[in-house]
Task: structure prediction
Amino acid sequence: MKKYRKKSVVIEAIKTECGKPMKEIIDFVGHENLDLNTNCEAVIRTLEGDMIINPGDYIVKGVTGGFYLCKPDFFEATYEPVVEDDLIYSVSKKYGFTVEEAQTLLSNKETKNILLANIGKSSCVTPVVNVTIPSGEFDVENLVNNLEYQIKKIFN
Result:
């Protein structure tokens, strides 16, 4: 059987949450695509028909402009935030960091220089430091401190 890979497509989405102002959802999908049913549940008109919106569901605007609902577990397994900053994206992909972790590491000047040197984006000559990323959860602050220690060893 032939295998297929999902094309890389940028979509727009909004997560529905208890307490989120309905105005945000209406602004995203348009008043004509949203309604309340007889049980006062929010209903969205999709290409598959009317669907009840549950807290936590994502409303996704597809590539053709239609809307559909996506459960949080499926959405989070399928999509990742678009990173407008190519540097943050490069560091997160190279080292397996989340976007937030990459932003934290790049906010430190010394750490940023090491990371840039290791991904070939540095404009200056910087000694390459071995960066080992532990599997699973890890302490970003501890990693930054370790990188700072290695930098100080090189330049002192």
User: Anything to note?
Assistant: The first strand starts at residue 12 and ends at 15.
